[in-house]
Structures are given as structure tokens and as C-alpha cells.
Amino acid sequence: MPRMPVPSLSLSSPPPLAGSRLAAWLGGRASDSVLSAVTRLAGPLTSPLAPDDYLGMLDPLLSARHPAGRVVAVRAEGPEAATLEIRPGRGWAGHRAGQFLPVGVEIDGVRHWRTYSITSPPGATVTITVKSAEKGVVSPHLVHRTAVGTVLRLGPAQGEFVLPEPPPARVLFVTAGSGITPVMGILRTLAARGTRLPDVVLLHSAPTPERCLFHAELTESADRLPWLTLRLTYTRADGRLTPERIAGLCPDWRRRETWVCGPAGLLGEVERWWADAGEGDRLRTERFRPAAVPAPGPDTGGSRVRFDRSGVEADAPASTTLLATGEAAGVVLPYGCRMGVCHGCLVALVDGRVRDLRTGELHGEPGELIQTCVNAAAGPLALDV
Hints:
By secondary structure, this protein is of the alpha/beta class. The protein contains ten helices and 19 strands. Strand 7, helix 5 and strand 8 form a beta-alpha-beta unit.
């Protein structure tokens, strides 16, 4: 591939392309490899800010450190929900069907973070389907007041509510309410693939047909796709979905790998039912409520943390998050929810390893983006901040 010319920018005279025109040139013509090379070479000249910070000022979609996406379409999904189609920028790393996405939206000058299941197959754009909550702030804003062209901050896609590859021969999905959203992404991905398809049974519960997300698409897909069997139930007429009803609607449930997403009550009943039947290893569940970060326990020693660009070093107790360690040392660190959901606290690891305080897992490779609000030092380490 021929190398693209890079314009020379002088600090003493206006650049030949400025503002949005330069952003358009960078976004439309310069490849990721060119942008990466430029930011790497320019790093020493722009400290304490990074070159990527200046790219983000020109156009948020050019930032690799702080991924963002632009809303290109908004589609109503009944009176209470909407699907937002988002075109991610340079920092987006892609997703697997069934994963969820942290989304940052500015409302009255304050950035709020929420997570939403991705309802689209992997591709150039990403869709999230948001259901408006009566007392919420962010979801009603996204559903009713988000315009095409809005820029949203994006965290990395995450979650293990995904099909293995290759998928199992027989699959059962059990969903209720907005629990259908991650499964919708999986079904659309399977439909787009067209080969090596499992035998799928979907049991979905909604209050009424009018309040059933994707009702028209689900029924049309069940008529068109021979591998998909759909069973819809409505709580207003049929009562809620129970394990007994699941077994009646899908008699061969024991022979199927099962994915369940919905209200906590349904998940708890299903988990007990599958465990009592000795089929717990065939069950995967997805909860929309994040796991809480446990309170720090007794310290079992500490490590030395270096905040590279700030020139600060600090002692880091083993049970204290890197975010708290940095703030106590006077280092300005990015943050959002402070509970491991929004990924607003991501910082690149220069060297060393960290421990996830939620799971105890050790991890860390040079360049890996670390959630400082839920990870602690597991030995001497350095962060790029």
C-alpha cells in the first residue's frame, strides 16, 4: 500500500487544513497505521498530553485511547424503546454476538455511563436497543432525545454470554423483557452466517404483543428460518415464565445448551431447577445488574506503582484499587462509575501485573488497558498516566 503524505503543521502559521477539514482528512484518508506512527513520533513533543488527545479534540472518532462512536440512525421500537445504530471510530476493537457495551452520554454537561447489550452482528456499525425506564436519566434520554450525529463514548465490548465456536447442535434461549437484546444479536449473527447452524428454540416472555421488543422480526424470522423455533408467552394473559412452563414448552431442554437472560427472579429459579436436575453445567445466565466491588479486606502487603507521565511513585496496598492509590498520591486519573462497569477509568499498563479485586484474577500485558477502579497492584508496576 503506498504511503500517504502527512501535512506539515507549523505552530507559527495556520495549518493548510484546519478543524473539521483536518479531521475529515485524517478520518477518511489516513490509515490506522499512519495515525499510529504519527502519534508515536509526536509523543515526546506533546507531553503532558498525548498526540491521541489532540486527535480526539479534532474529532472524537479519531481517538484510540478514548473510543467513541457517532449515531447514524435512531429507530423506534414501540413507545418505550429505540434502537441506536452507531458507527464506531478508530479506537473500537469490535465485539462478539451476545456481548454488552458501556456507553457514555453527556446530559446537561455531565457524562453518564450505562451498559447495553449489542443487538447487531459484528460489522461496520453497532446497534444497541434501549428500553426507557420511568425513573431513569440515561435510558429515557437515549430513547427520546438522541439525534442522528450525536457522539457517544464507547467502552470495550465485554461479557461471556456468547455462543462457542462451533456452536452446539441444540440450543435453548430463555428470555424475558429486555433480556431478549443479547439473544437478538446472536440470532442475527446466526442468520447472517447461513451455515453450520444449530437447532435453536427461543422461549420469550413479554407483557403483551405490543410491548414485545422485536415482535415483528421474531415472528417473521421463525416463519422463514427452519432452524429457529419460537415460543412467545405474554404475562398479562399467560402469567410469568417459570421452569415448569419452560419444560412444557421445550420437552428436550435437558439435551440443549441453554442461555437465559431476564429478571433476577427468573434467573434464580432457572439456576435452581437446572442444578437440581444435574444440568447446571449446560446453563449460562446473563444479569444486567453488575457485580459489586467488594470492600477492601486486610492488606497482605503492598507494591510500588509508578505513574509514568506524571512522574509520581506511590505505595499500593494489595487491597486498594489503583484509582484510589493514584488519587491519594495526587495523580489525576480518569474515572466514571467507579464500580467496573463504564470503563471510563481505562489506563494503559506499561509494565507489571494487576489483580482484579472482583475475581482475584491476575492479568496484565504491556499496552493492556487496565480498569483502575477494580484492579490492584500485584507487584511493582507502571501505568501510562
